[in-house]
Structure formats: C-alpha cells, structure tokens
C-alpha cells in the first residue's frame, strides 16, 4: 500500500512523507489533531494538517528553543511556556535543576492528552513536580502577569488559526511586562525563504522590536519545516545573546545535546546576508 | 493543469515542485538532462531526475563553494573547477580580479550547452577570457596535474553515476598533488540528515582525511536539496578555515553577496552536535 502525508509549503511546493499508518485522528474544540507513524521520521504530529514535530528531528527545534536562552541568562528560576502542548520544550527545561517553577499555558488539553498517549518521548517532563499545566489562552494568561518570569518561551503554531493571538503587538507587550527586568523571551519565528513566511517573519520581528530593547533572530536546520531553514526570536531586556553567552558555565552543566552546543549557539545568530537584509528596516542597532 | 516534479529524497520522503512547463529534455552520452520552469523556484535543472539547481536558491550553493576558500587563501591565482557545467561556480570566481586563470573540467558538453541556452543567469562567467573549458573526465584530468593550482573546487553530482569517480580516495590524492603547497580543495559533501546521505558523507570525509592534513566540513541551508541541510568539505594543506580567515581583506573587496558574509563564514563551520559526532571517528585533531 502507498500512503503519503503531504504538506504544502506554499501552493507550489510540498513535502511528502510515506506513512505506515495513522495512529490517531481527532477534532478538538480548536483544531484537528493527527498522529502518524512513518518509516523515515518515526511518529509525527500534525495540527490542522501542518507538521508540528517528528520523532526524528524534534530534538533540533526543542533544544534550540530552550538551551539558547538558558546559556545566556545567568539565573533562570521561573519560566513561562506558552503553547508547547507536545511537552518537548518542558522536557528540555526540566533538565536544569536550577529552574524552580515552570508554568505551561496550552489552550488545547486534547493536544497534551494525545501527545502523552502517542508521543511519550516528548512528554517525559510534564509530570515533573515543578511544572504547572494551565489550559487556557496564553494571550489572556500573560495579560495578568507582571514581573513574574525570567524566561518566556512562545512555542506557538503558525500566525493563523488558534496561534494567531501569539503574534500580536499586544501579546509581546504583555510578555515584556510579565518578565523580570533582565528577562528573555524566545519564540518560533517562521522561515526566511518562502514569500508568505517572510512576510510573517518580518511582521513578527517588527512587533517584537517595538516592545523589547534587544531583538535578534537565530536559525536552525529543521528538515521537516518549510524550506528546512527555521528562525527563532531572541528578545531581551538586558542580556545580549552573544556578548552575554556564558559558555564555560553552560558546559559545566554537562547537559548532553544532539544539536545544541555553545559553539553552534554563536553560529546560529550569524544569518545569511539576505536574511540580515530583510531585517534592516525593522531592526534598530544595538 | 497540475504538473509536478517530484524528487525522492529517500524512498520514504519526497519534495514536489509545481511546474509551469518543461523547457528542455535530452539525453547526453552521460545522463538525462531536463530544464523546467516553476512558479516557486523559477527555472531549474535536473540531471537523471536529481535536482541540480534552481533560479531561486542556487546563489546559496555557489556562493558557499567559492567565497569560503577565497576569504581564507591570501593569493588565489590559478583555480581548477571540476564539474560545475552550469557555470555557477565560475560566475562567482570571475568576480575576483586577482584570479588569473580558471580551468573548468566538465565531462558533459551538453550540460554546458543546455545551461547556456536555458539558464543564462548561471553561465555569465563562462566567456571570461581567463576561463578554459575542457570537456573531459575530471578524474583523468587531475591525474596529470602537479603543483599547478591554488584552489580546486569539486562541484560534482552525487556519489553515483557520472560523478562517482570524484568521491574516490585516488581522486582526492590526485587533487592533493595538483595543488600548490598552500592549496585548498573544496567539494560538495552531501547531507548529514538522511541515513544514505550520512553514509556517503562519512565515507567521503574519511577519504579526504587520508589525503589532506586539515579537513573540515561547513554547512548551508539549501531548501531544494535533501533535508535542506547541506555540507561542503574544506580540505587544506596549510590554511585553517577560521584561524586564517582574512575578514577585513575580503570585506575590502566589496563583493556583494546574498548568502555569504565573513560572519556567516564562521557560523558555517559551527556544526550541530550530532554532525560533529558523525565525524569523530574519521577526523583527526588539528
């Protein structure tokens, strides 16, 4: 039998993955949720037909969301994670024994249930006693917070559908307010390659720049995301992602990673010329 | 009408590109050659059905093949280019007025003819008076050379079919001999992501390590190549790709690039942990 999952990356290009079988398909209040098993990527999760993670390459995304800010901020104790229902971000966070509390705010409880059942390799951190899972809209949750967190990680879906509010100027303003005076916000920031993604990426960056004094993008190779060239935002009140990188200190933790190293950390911020150019109009010097 | 070109990246994953029309299809003595026009990537060239280049992202590959060694070697005068029938590598090379001569050795004259006609954006350098095009087997050509070049660029197809000889230990040994005492060899080095590519990448690296005292890999985001994470080999008799990077000197040339910058140059050598690990057994310290 030939069974293929295809995701259109634009209306003119698509990536197709051979599927052994569909493990789950359901519709929550917010979105359609599917889990597949594939020979190339192992299990993978899609929301509304968009690839969220695969067993083979999820380590890249999750390591880059977590270890980059943790190697810069000297003292992360309280973390807010928005979205991230698959648990991958929390799994990386709970590896730090210096973190005291993690609030994970996910709008869709069904995503967490499905991942616990079908993707246990991402949910291992969710039962850590330091983790509180709150099922509500991240936009509304963060509005109520003030000077509460050292780090906010925004692990959202794309800037349409349920995740749309997590790409607004109001949301970034609320995150700024929710952070301590030396806080950092990291978010998934789309791709610089296809025109539609570029527009979203520039708009997002422009909005973050309005809220945070320092805003930089960094990149990773994520083969199952559109173009494979994915960006993350590093927005900060105080620390610079390179000048304040605490390389020796992070390496002394002896956390073994499969993608992240403190050397790679630096290279992740060295963007191609065409990406730098896309940011020129929206990024102030710092 | 729906017309799609699909390339299997493994037998379980494929990338598909919508096509407006096929501009050329022919069979040379060595391979099948096709040119298509697409809404997303502009024109693109395939050899035996494998993607060689697209109008939209070829700049990444060609800039990374050429400007990385040119920013390290202080005095490149004579260059040997093997393969590269599309002309993209030569187009970047002829931007350096300090280069005196370029031998381009391409086995298949039909590739050059087809590219001249259908992909004129890559062939602009081929008529430069410093360029000699030789239609012969690169493996045989380089056997006859001794102490003749400052730089060899191996822009081959994959390690099977007509390009197979360009991945042998004998070939790398000949390249070593063909280079001056401070020469550099750069080659396309496959991807670290899918198992089949990994095997080819490790085998290639092991063979280069046996011929050159210094061998390093660097990476780029090339969306239309398998996984989008592509590697290049930097093999050198003397210069280190980072310690000998002549940043100010290269920037003083004022060559405007769309992907390459001397900052990105450094990051390109900062590989993910899992790629470093793949090289541990074959890469000696240096």
Question: Can you put this structure into words, describing what you see?
Answer:
- The structure is a homodimer of 286-residue chains.
- With 286 residues, the first copy, chain A, is α/β, with parallel strands linked by helices.
- Chain A has 2 domains: 4-54, Spermidine Synthase, Chain: A, domain 2, CATH 2.30.140; 58-279, Vaccinia Virus protein VP39 (Rossmann fold), CATH 3.40.50.
- Chain A has 9 helices and 13 strands.
- Chain A has helices spanning 58-70, 88-93, 109-118, 138-143, 169-178, 195-211, 247-252, 262-268, 273-279, and strands at residues 4-10, 13-18, 21-27, 32-38, 42-47, 50-54, 78-83, 101-105, 131-134, 149-155, 179-188, 214-221, 229-236.
- Chain A has a 7-stranded mixed sheet, with helices on both faces.
- In chain A, helix 5 links the parallel strand 10 (149-155) and strand 11.
- The first copy, chain A, starts with a strand and ends in a 7-residue tail after the last helix.
- Chain A binds chain B through residues 6, 10-18, 38-41, 57, 60, 193-194, 219, 221, 223, 227-229, 257-261, 263-264, 266-274, 276, and chain B through 6, 10-18, 38-41, 57, 60, 193-194, 219, 221, 223, 227-229, 257-261, 263-264, 266-274, 276.
């Amino acid at each position: 039998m030939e069974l293929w999952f295809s995701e259109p990356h634009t209306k003119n290009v698509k990536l197709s993955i051979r599927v052994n079988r569909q493990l789950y398909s359901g519709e929550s209040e917010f979105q359609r949720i599917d889990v597949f098993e594939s020979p190339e990527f192992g299990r993978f999760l899609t929301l509304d037909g968009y690839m969220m993670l695969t067993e083979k390459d999820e380590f890249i995304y999750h390591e880059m969301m977590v270890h980059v800010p943790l190697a810069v901020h000297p003292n992360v104790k309280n973390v807010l994670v928005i979205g991230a229902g698959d648990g991958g971000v929390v799994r990386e966070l709970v590896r730090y024994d210096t973190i005291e509390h993690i609030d994970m705010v996910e709008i869709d409880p069904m995503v967490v249930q499905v991942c616990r059942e079908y993707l246990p390799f991402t949910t291992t951190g969710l039962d850590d006693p330091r983790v509180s899972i709150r099922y509500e809209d991240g936009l509304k949750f963060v509005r109520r917070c003030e000077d509460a967190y050292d780090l906010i990680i925004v692990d959202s879906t794309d800037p349409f559908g349920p995740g749309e509010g997590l790409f607004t100027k109001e949301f970034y303003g609320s995150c700024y307010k929710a952070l301590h005076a030396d806080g950092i916000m990291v978010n998934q920031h789309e791709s610089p390659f296809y025109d539609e993604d570029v527009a979203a990426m520039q708009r997002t960056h422009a909005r973050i720049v309005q809220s945070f004094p320092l805003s930089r993008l960094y990149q990773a190779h994520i083969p199952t995301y559109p173009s494979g060239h994915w960006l993350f935002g590093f927005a900060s009140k105080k620390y610079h992602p390179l000048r304040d990188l605490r390389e020796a200190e992070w390496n002394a933790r002896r956390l073994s990673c499969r993608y992240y190293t403190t050397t790679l950390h630096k290279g992740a911020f060295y963007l191609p010329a065409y990406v730098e150019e896309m940011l020129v109009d929206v990024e102030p010097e710092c």
